[in-house]
Write a structure and sequence with these properties.
By secondary structure, the protein is α+β, with helices and mostly antiparallel strands. It has 10 helices and 8 strands. It has helices spanning 88-99, 114-132, 137-158, 168-183, 190-196, 201-211, 216-234, 239-245, 251-262, 266-273; strands at residues 6-10, 27-34, 37-41, 44-48, 53-56, 62-66, 73-79, 106-109. A 5-stranded antiparallel sheet has the order 1-7-2-5-8, covered by helices on one side. It has a 3-stranded antiparallel sheet with strand order 4-3-6, with no helix packed on it. It is globular, with a radius of gyration of 20 Å. The two termini are 15 Å apart. The model has no long low-confidence stretch (mean pLDDT 91).
């Protein structure tokens, strides 16, 4: 079931049990229901265990993957900053110190803490409201989100948060990946990607290895494959035409990469998952 605020995730439903490094304007709250999840925020890698909660602040580079063969089921709550109060005094006092705090890139909430209990309860309430959709349920959801941020604010105030040095490499990575997102259908070389950030090929490769665990060209092709997935399941376009639109010069090369990544051919994937 697709919800406006909460999505139920299972790595069996996610392409190849991983998500490419990305960032977003929303705050993301991940609650692990079953299994374990590997997560990277900026360059920090960690594992989120069953019952734990991970809160990822807005505009933070992050990626997730399944930690083992047993799979992982989780809930995602995406919080748009526009949901918060328009009262500037209250926003500046309680919300801004979280959303725009460079030292709060992510918070891991262990299962045996009172914060975990409170956030779990609020996530369950939000999920129930979206499932039942009573009158004006959206207002109740936004109220619960405010209560959640109240708990997060109190947690931050009572904990000593270590200062984190922001890296200029993160900005460069965002520039280069944005270029890939906007131009993936064109012929792109390593030189093209590096030139966007005005850096050498070797530095470009090192940055991608650090934040994406892929080479720049590998990242480009993985993104092209992700775009092709949407085309495969949402229209009946010829696969050869679709491969060209996604930036693959030849269908044979596209088929080879697709089979290697998803262990199934594009035509088989379309027959299996087409809507």
């Amino acid at each position: 079931m697709e919800n406006s605020f909460i999505r139920i995730g299972n790595f069996d439903d996610i392409k190849n049990r991983h998500v490419l490094t990305h960032w977003q304007d929303n705050v993301e709250v991940i609650k692990i229901d079953e299994g374990d999840m590997n997560c990277m925020v900026n360059s920090e890698k960690f594992t989120i265990r069953k019952g734990n909660i991970c809160i990822i602040n807005k505009k933070q580079l992050h990626r997730i993957s399944c930690a083992d063969e047993n799979g992982c089921t989780f809930k995602n709550l995406f919080i748009d900053p526009s949901f918060f109060t328009a009262n500037k005094k209250i926003y500046d006092k309680y919300i801004d110190p979280i959303l725009n705090n460079d030292n709060v890139s992510q918070i891991i909430v262990n299962s045996n803490t009172s914060l975990n209990k409170e956030i779990n309860k609020l996530i369950d309430e939000i999920y129930y409201l979206e499932k039942e959709k009573p009158l004006c349920y959206e207002l109740s959801v936004i109220a619960y989100i405010h209560l959640m941020f109240k708990e997060i604010y109190c947690y931050i105030k009572t904990k000593k948060i270590a200062n984190k040095k922001s890296s200029s490499d993160i900005v460069l990575f965002m520039k280069m990946t944005s270029f890939i997102y906007e131009n993936f259908s064109e012929k792109i070389s390593l030189d093209d990607i590096a030139s966007v950030a005005n850096i050498s090929r070797s530095k470009c490769s090192n940055i991608f290895k650090k934040y994406a665990d892929n080479s720049p060209i590998e990242f480009l092709n993985l993104y092209r494959l992700e775009v092709s997935i949407e085309k495969l399941i949402n229209n009946d376009q010829q696969i050869s035409e679709m491969a060209l639109e996604c930036g693959f010069g030849q269908q044979s090369y596209y088929n080879k990469l697709f089979l290697r990544e998803y262990k199934i051919t594009p035509s088989e994937y379309r027959r299996k998952y087409s809507k």
